[in-house]
Amino acid sequence: MDDHTLITRRADVMATDIDDATVILSLQSNCYVSLEAIGQRIWALLEPPISLDSLVERLQEAFEGDPGAIRRDVEHFLGELEADGLVTLQSTEPSA
Hints:
By secondary structure, the chain is α+β, with helices and mostly antiparallel strands. The protein is 38% helix and 27% strand. The radius of gyration is 13 Å and the shape is globular.
């Protein structure tokens, strides 16, 4: 992943809020994930699709912490969402 990686929610994914969690279901893989707090915030920021750099920037504005640690945690989380078939990560080149 690099700064310009575009993160997109998959079209075949359904999400709903239940109590204090967001439950996400992949209709393709029948995988579901329950997100709370920061995971919910990240999921909300993925609509519309967003670059990794922009996502990390917005999270740094909302939460205190070491910028490098925030980025590493976000990359790890997005990798898990991708592995579960919930998002796609598309490498894009910056505009010239």
